[in-house]
Amino acid sequence: MQIRKNREELISEYYRDYYDKLQHSGIQGFGQRLMNTRLEKYWINTKPAITLELGFGSGQHLDSVLDWPKEIYVGLDSRVSTLNTKIPDAVKLAVIEGDIHFLPFPDRSIERILMTCLLHHLDNPYSALCEISRILDKNGEVAILMPTDPGFFNRFIKKFTVHRKAKRFENYNSRLIYALDHRNHIDALISIIKYVFEDDKIKIKYGPFSYIKSWNLNLFVIVSIKRG
């Protein structure tokens, strides 16, 4: 009987050996840049004191940042990677390792919080969102970018991009990785966000077809939240 790798080993191998090759090049890379750029258009406060990016990775989102914070940009991730982009000399960047379910910040201490394509992967997105709500300043903002997995159009595009590209790698099963790592449904995540931030101002934007208000017929959703 063949000994199977456990879930953690399979996912760790994916991020180590395949993630950048599949997600940050070609059509998929273009889509990632489009989503990140779109997210940056919805901020109200153009000069927050502190920006916190959750799921920082190797800093892929930094290339899309339009409004740099006055004081510091903090990137938090469960696995700290080598920074792969340049930032303005005047910006103070702090990259820390941490758990989104137990954020190491005081209550109401952060003015701007963002995350891209993170909630689908979490064991407990409700707990993570409650932590974000806890540390968000009384006048703070949150932007959450999520792929529309398992929406119809999302699955259709993946068939001809990620899954097709993945065939180049003999020992990699992209459908299995999505099944193991994208455990949370987009509709469920939207419902949890609405509940946690029910006292705040919430706007939901769809992309790339902003005029179609359906996650089934789009590739990503951006939820922007304004406290106060």
Write the layout of secondary structure elements.
Elements: H1 7-17, H2 19-23, H3 26-39, E1 50-54, E2 72-77, E3 93-97, E4 110-116, H4 125-135, E5 136-147, H5 152-160, H6 162-166, H7 174-181, H8 186-196, E6 201-207, E7 220-226
Parallel strand pairs: 1-2, 1-4, 2-3, 4-5
Antiparallel strand pairs: 5-7, 6-7
Helix pairs in contact: 4-8
What share of residues are in beta strands?
15-25%
By CATH, the topology is: Rossmann fold
Mean pLDDT: 90
Which regions are unreliable across 5 or more consecutive residues at pLDDT < 50? none
Global structural class: alpha/beta
- Tally of DSSP β-strands: 7
Rg, please? 17 Å
Walk across the major sheet and give the strand order. 3-2-1-4-5-7-6
Brief summary of the model shown:
With 228 residues, the chain is an alpha/beta fold.
Structural features:
single chain, 228 residues, alpha/beta, Rossmann fold, seven-stranded mixed β-sheet, 8 helices
Task: Write up what this structure looks like.
The chain has a 7-stranded mixed beta sheet, with helices on both faces. Helices cover 32% and strands 21% of the residues. The protein has 8 helices and 7 strands. The longest helix is centred in the N-terminal third of the chain and has 14 residues, at 26-39. It starts with 6 loop residues before the first helix and ends with a strand. The protein has 228 residues and is an alpha/beta fold.
